[in-house]
Automatic annotation (TrEMBL):
<protein>
    <submittedName>
        <fullName>SUF system Fe-S cluster assembly protein</fullName>
    </submittedName>
</protein>
<dbReference type="InterPro" id="IPR052339">
    <property type="entry name" value="Fe-S_Maturation_MIP18"/>
</dbReference>
<dbReference type="InterPro" id="IPR002744">
    <property type="entry name" value="MIP18-like"/>
</dbReference>
<dbReference type="InterPro" id="IPR034904">
    <property type="entry name" value="FSCA_dom_sf"/>
</dbReference>
<dbReference type="InterPro" id="IPR014291">
    <property type="entry name" value="SUF_FeS_clus_asmbl-assoc"/>
</dbReference>
<dbReference type="Pfam" id="PF01883">
    <property type="entry name" value="FeS_assembly_P"/>
</dbReference>
<feature type="domain" description="MIP18 family-like">
    <location>
        <begin position="14"/>
        <end position="87"/>
    </location>
</feature>
Length: 109
């Protein structure tokens, strides 16, 4: 039997989400998580994180820098061994993916 882990992958996943929520879309005053740009966060037993995310548009001005920022911020979490961000446009982002909070913030509700 291995020793008990200090932190489980779910907890680490929550930390990753917290960090992601500190990253904002440059054009919209809402974090990328509430915007619905993060499709999935995977954390494996080795504390490697993979994030599946999208951008508001394929030619988004931060198409290069945003995924990199997400990756770097996740890598800065103590326990994370590695992080990889994969961009997908399937399904394409739409305003329906935004949280109620984001819609409220943007006066859409």
């Amino acid at each position: 039997m291995g020793k008990l882990e200090d932190i489980d992958v779910n907890e680490l996943g929550e930390k990753v989400v917290k960090v992601i929520k500190t990253i904002y879309d440059p054009e919209i005053p809402v974090d990328i998580y509430e915007l619905g740009l993060i499709y999935d966060v995977f954390v494996n037993e080795d504390y490697e994180v993979k994030v599946l995310m999208t951008l508001t548009t394929p030619n988004c001005p931060v198409a290069e820098s945003l995924p990199q920022e997400v990756e770097e911020k996740i890598k800065s979490i103590d326990l994370v061994k590695d992080a990889e961000v994969e961009i997908t446009f399937d399904p394409p982002w739409s305003q329906d993916l935004m949280s109620e909070e984001a819609k409220l913030e943007l006066g859409m509700l």
